[in-house]
Amino acid sequence: MSTAVVHRSGLRFAAGIYRVRVFGATAGLVCTTPIMLSDRAVTFLLMTFAAALLAWPHLAYVIARRSMHPVNAERRHLFIDSMFAGVIVALLNFRLVPSTIVLLSVAMNSIAVGGMRPMLFCCIANALGVLVGIGLFGSHITNANEPYSTLVMLPLMVLYPLLIARFAHMASERLAEKTRQLKVLSELDALTGLLNRTTFIARLDRLLRACDGETTNVGVIFVDLDNFKTINDSLGHKAGDRVLTRLSGRLMQISEQGGLICRYGGDEFVAAVQVASINDLSIIAARIIRDMSRDVSIDGTRLKLGASVGISVFPEHSSDAASLISRADAAMYRAKHRGKGTTTFYDEHMEHASAIKYRIARRLRAAIQKDLKVHYQPQVDMVSGRLIGVEALARWYDTELGHVPPGLFIPIAEEMGLIGELGMAVMRIACADVARWRAIYDTSVKMSINVSVLQLRRPEFLDDVCELIAQFKIEPSQLELEVTESALLDNVGEARSTFERLAQLGVRVAVDDFGTGYSNLSYLHALRIDRIKIDQSFIRELFTTTTGQSIVSAVIAMANAMTLDIVAEGVETWAQARWLVSHGCVTGQGYRFSHPLAPEEFERWMIANPAGLSLLVTECSSHS
Ligand code: C2E
Ligand code: CA
Ligand code: CA
């Protein structure tokens, strides 16, 4: 049942009380009218009270309707009702019959929200009202010996407990049930019916205090759905909500088995279970992943989700609920990074790493449009020394973090969804520089730009590339996109159509870090590749391992056979350069020729080497 449903039934309750109150006020008025008419001394006061008595039900009803908890509001009103009765009784100088009638008419109002405790409070309020009344009007009991008084009192004394107390009891039970429902609801997540975050933390705290940590452990299991965002984005929030409700139904069994489970926020859930051994936690986590990976069918569409799970353990990782949760969260991030659908246990290096990561991501987001720089590393013909092209490499200097290497911020940008924006920013700067060099130096520099596979997946990617080409009037074949081999291998299917469009446009594609993918090379056929870049690790090991040279010569032979261009990366010595040239790889990139250079440095480098690296040619031949 939702909060709204209980609130609505609370309002119906208030409406019922309103009717009883109106009835009570009317009855009170009818009974006191003869006194008003007969006793001039009290007429004015009684009329004032009568007006208040008439106004009060309406006022109380308005207040109750506006209140978040109408039932509670009515309980407070009950107190005022009783005060009222006390004052009126005092005003009437305790005339037995009218006094009893007034008290009873108010009691009729009260019983609707009554119960033992509220009744007790109302008696106190009654007494207070009487005292206030005596203070205002003085006290004397009149007509104490009215002959019919005992006759009236006796049946009332019998009937009251029989009839009214029974009603009061029933009403108070309903009230107690309503209050309980409201309390339960305030502890639950409105959408899924699982515990909400606040209640979960409080209960986990209680569980930890009760647990000795020796014979039993408490595992905190952080579950994050994989691919939920895609479903939410493509099918809309309503469908997303239904998916969440379905999946949380599957998580419910954790609480059925005595554990705690809450919706922590968005598509995150946290469970806490008491276990005898850590191994039990792995079993539970595996079951959760299995349950979350079962298809969900929404309006006939079968959806495939999954979950990544991180686990922290009490007392090993912390004895405090909040930090156990944040550690399980850190472990979950690691699990996601390792590959979705996996489980990872927390270890203390993670927290540090994830704190740094969030900080970097936060600052990077702000830096992309203003602080991001691009440096250029020349690729040269190692025989003639001619400049073949440059590779654009992102550079970021942050005032707080200092120089952050791309090897650190690029994976974070990929993980945090910033890579699309970052990649386009780099491409824009690089294209602008190509256009600038053409205008100033009348030279067309070939530009290689690193592209993450996540960028290729974006539907707007090709349009963005076309737009840059048009804006900066760049010859498409001047542009080369480098995609790492390992990323390509996982995405051959997806990449195919994008690569075909790029080929149609005339934009070149290179496989970066070639040789690190440990795979069959069929993708080279499947995708339209123009060039491969031999990974720098092979060049580094050229003379240090027995297999180094055979691997590189095999790669060169293969590239030649497939008429693919080839470039060697990370060339640091003349010996490496000479070996590569003599084995058929003429293009090289590496510190031997130049480090990556800031644009103005690169321009100076170009001017200083108008005919290419003449020095290089001499070096290459003199050492051979
Ligand atoms: P990468 O694409 O393999 O880039 C080559 C890296 O090797 C660069 O590191 C470069 O400075 C370094 N390097 C060049 N010559 C030598 C050498 O002779 N010896 C050694 N030891 N290293 C050499 P950097 O700039 O730190 O970039 C690291 C990686 O970050 C790049 O590897 C690339 O994967 C990624 N990256 C850089 N900029 C971007 C970008 O704009 N977009 C994307 N998606 N990735 C980028
Ligand atoms: Ca590269
Ligand atoms: Ca590389």
From TrEMBL:
Record InterPro entries: Biofilm_reg_signaling, EAL_dom, EAL_sf, GGDEF_dom, MASE2, Nucleotide_cyclase, Rev_trsase/Diguanyl_cyclase
Please verify whether the record's keywords include tRNA-binding. no
Q: Which Gene3D superfamilies match?
A: 3.30.70.270, EAL domain (3.20.20.450)
The record lists the membrane-crossing segments as 20-37, 44-64, 84-107, 119-142, 148-168
Fetch the SUPFAM superfamilies from UniProt.
Answer: EAL domain-like, Nucleotide cyclase
- Keywords, sorted A to Z: Membrane, Transmembrane, Transmembrane helix
Q: Which residues form the EAL domain?
A: 357-610
Q: Which residues form a coiled coil?
A: none
Q: Which domain of life is it from?
A: Bacteria
Q: Which residues form the GGDEF domain?
A: 216-348
Q: What is this protein called?
A: Diguanylate cyclase/phosphodiesterase (GGDEF & EAL domains) with PAS/PAC sensor(S)
